[in-house]
Amino acid sequence: MTARGTEIAARPYPFRLAGRESVALLVIDMQRDFLEPGGFGAALGNDVLRLQRVVPTVRRLLDAFRERGLTVIHTKEGHRPDLSDCPAAKRDRGAPGLRIGDRGPMGRILVLGEPGNDFVPELAPARGELVVPKPGKGAFYRTGLDARLAARGVTQLLIAGVTTEVCVQTTMREANDRGYECLLIEDATESYFPEFKAATLEMVRAQGAIVGWTAPASAVLAAL
Ligand code: TIU
Fold first, then answer.
1. Which of 68, 160, 196, 214 counts the most CB atoms within 10 A of its CB?
2. Is-above-0.90 flag for pTM?
């Protein structure tokens, strides 16, 4: 990418990168709690292994951003050990095998600092990369992310991570409303429900990119 940017071959139309300083790779919640047995995702009854298929693609994107010195941000969904930032409405929802804060095989479910709440090892943040803990599904809710992006001059977010229709889509919508241009990387996001992933990709880029763009990782890598 030049200082003035270039274009990503995206849908519904090309995504013009504004320049090196304006773009960030935002990796959403690539944590053991969602990708490994014994965590939050599994406690909700999901087949967590299907999320692991995107790990190599996210890693390729991370490598490319790091090699070029571009901004990388990681979010992690989790709660304080006293659960003071976990609404009862979230903890009490549904009938999971283990609830948020309960002790599981990887430590307490969805609690910051527990082994199961950490990133999958292949995608661990590198020194200097921003790590944003978040109590909600959206990365802008009670995190200060907006101010931190503004301080860096970031206006465009290339988004990867899990799950497509929950934390990824919520974050993309929050970002879109705040004026960021967002591109969801199709093969770097995954859902427990393939039909929800497909619907999310369709709905964000419909109506002339009403929420944002989508493109495969190969198109993003070609443009960097
Ligand atoms: N359950 C589910 O699909 N997702 C979450 O609870 N969090 C995220 O998407 N990270």
1. 160
2. yes
Positions of the chain with pLDDT lower than 70, given as ranges: 3-4
For residue 174, give the amino acid letter.
E
Task: Classify residue 155 as exposed, middle or buried by CB count within 10 Å of its CB (0-12, 13-18, 19+).
Answer: middle
Q: Look at the chain and count its residues.
A: 224
| Per-residue tokens: 72 | 């990388």
Which helix (H) or strand (E) segment holds residue 187: the answer is strand 181-190
Q: Is 166 in the pocket of ligand 1 (CB under 6 A)?
A: yes
CA of 19 to the centre of ligand 1 (A): 31
How far are the Cα atoms of 53, 80, 112, 173 from residue 133, in angstroms, in the given order?
24, 10, 8, 18
Active-site residues, by number, are 29, 134, 167
Atom of ligand 1 nearest to the CA of 170: 9
Sequence-distant (6+) residues with CB within 8 A of 136 are: 77, 142, 170
The DSSP 8-state label assigned to residue 21 in this structure reads G
The two tokens of residue 90 are: 């979230």
The pLDDT of residue 4 is 67
